[in-house]
């Protein structure tokens, strides 16, 4: 068909006259590259999940959760710490730009931007390549977020003496939950010399261990009160020898009640 000067319109159709349904090939036509979902793939997933759960249960049995003592609102020396997976946010709130009047910036804005950026990473880097060097934006944002979390977590936990903290804040077994006789003459001496560190009920605090459930003689308790031990300096007890005897008798009587 001619139209105008030398122009030709040619019709070309490559669609077959017979219409066939677009059915994907069976997995058996791709040997070594795919497998049936049931039971092959699902069985592998179940096995992997079972191994993980058994390993996790063994880990929890071998290393129980480091529980602390009951919360005491009157203990002003206790420094609370969040779980390890929140330590990076805990450390972030120590900086001037994310604390005080800018605390909303530290608890909402900065974490929101960080996690929002990770959510947008697949959309910002939507190329067909799957290797890390072909997805620089997504990989870079992920590495930056991971490095920030690791560094902030390390900075938050580096100054904490975890062994001492666990020893001081041990959970009190029911056998050691004794009723303190506050009418005892030794309790008034304890209140004036020891309560600020060892707590109202002799259960200890972040600065001193508990005095309930100790395995020491009366002579050892009196010597520690005078000369100190560990992080306890000497001279903490300011009373007389007679007051020291009453204090030791009071502490020993509390421990005797705890073991009965």
Structural class: mainly alpha
Outline the biggest β-sheet.
Answer: 2 strands, antiparallel
Question: Beta-strand level of the residues, as a percent range?
Answer: under 5%
Query: How many β-strands, per DSSP?
Result: 2
Spatial strand order of the main sheet: 1-2
Which overall shape is indicated by the principal axes computed on the Cα atoms? elongated
Number of helices: 9
The low-confidence runs, each spanning 5 or more residues with pLDDT under 50, are none
What is the terminal separation in angstroms?
A: 113 Å
Report Rg: 34 Å
Order of helices and strands: EEHHHHHHHHH
- DSSP helix fraction: 40-55%
User: pLDDT average, as an integer?
Assistant: 79
Description:
The chain has 260 residues and is an all-alpha fold. The protein is 48% helix and 2% strand. It has helices at residues 37-62, 87-92, 103-124, 136-157, 162-168, 185-193, 195-198, 218-227, 241-259, and strands at 2-3, 7-8. It has a two-stranded antiparallel ribbon. A hairpin with a 3-residue loop joins strand 1 (2-3) and strand 2. The longest helix is centred in the N-terminal third of the chain and has 26 residues, at 37-62. The chain is elongated, with a radius of gyration of 34 Å. The chain starts with a strand and ends with a helix.
């Amino acid at each position: 068909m001619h139209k105008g000067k030398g122009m030709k319109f040619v019709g070309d159709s490559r669609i077959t006259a017979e219409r066939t349904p677009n059915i994907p090939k069976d997995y058996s036509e791709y040997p070594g590259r795919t497998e049936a979902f049931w039971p092959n793939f699902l069985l592998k997933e179940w096995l992997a999940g079972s191994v993980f759960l058994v390993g996790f249960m063994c880990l929890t049995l071998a290393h129980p959760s480091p529980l602390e003592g009951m919360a005491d609102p009157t203990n002003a020396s206790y420094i609370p710490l969040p779980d390890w997976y929140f330590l990076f946010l805990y450390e972030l709130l120590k900086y001037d730009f994310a604390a005080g009047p800018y605390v909303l910036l530290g608890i909402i804005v900065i974490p929101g931007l960080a996690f929002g950026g990770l959510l947008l990473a697949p959309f910002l880097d939507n190329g067909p390549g799957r290797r890390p060097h072909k997805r620089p934006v997504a990989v870079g944002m992920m590495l930056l977020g991971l490095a920030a979390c690791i560094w902030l977590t390390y900075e938050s936990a580096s100054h904490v003496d975890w062994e001492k903290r666990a020893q001081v804040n041990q959970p009190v077994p029911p056998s050691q939950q004794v009723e303190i006789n506050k009418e005892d003459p030794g309790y008034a001496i304890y209140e004036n010399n020891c309560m600020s560190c060892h707590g109202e009920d002799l259960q200890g605090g972040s600065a001193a261990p508990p005095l309930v459930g100790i395995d020491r003689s009366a002579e050892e308790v009196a010597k520690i009160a005078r000369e100190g031990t560990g992080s306890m300096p000497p001279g903490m007890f300011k009373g007389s020898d007679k007051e020291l005897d009453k204090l030791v008798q009071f502490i020993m009587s509390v421990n005797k009640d705890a073991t009965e």
